[in-house]
Amino acid sequence: MFKRLLLACLLFAGTAQANDWDALRQPGAMAIMRHALAPGVGDPGSFALDDCSTQRNLDDRGRAQAERIGAAFRDRGIGFDAVLTSQWCRTRETARLLDLGPVSDAPPLNSFFRDRASRDRQTEETLDIVAKADGPLMLVTHQVNISALAGRSTRSGEVLVFRLVDGAPRVTGSIMIDP
Fold this sequence. Notes:
The chain is an alpha/beta fold. The protein has helices at 2-11, 60-75, 89-98, 119-132, 143-150; strands at 30-34, 82-85, 103-105, 137-141, 159-165, 168-175.
């Protein structure tokens, strides 16, 4: 418990401001985003990773939200060397609609909503990806993954800006484009 409290204190040692675009221009800045609006919670019992019809997906508002978020980044001249996404359809579609860089699947970003036992392993694998990055990354994932990594919750479509400090993520900004 003490270790988690200490990590939470480290995460919030930096000041996070809403729509903090300047945070993305700082050395080592990375972005992690919760997928755009997808009505509901979790996925149906018949969920299959390779079948979008069995998943909770973006609706028209979610698609428009993802496009607006991407446009806001492009309008400010902000792009990414890579956009990594979970393999869920709603995150892949969000990543593609952002149009902020080449999109690739990253299984450590997959939701562990149903299987919390993989939380620590996936979080460590995500940190390894970030630590090895040669340039800025945009990670598109799920609420549970962001909470495990950053120690705080996000709304659909919210982007947290962070950088690694002594191997741990420190949130330095938050960007939210309303749906």
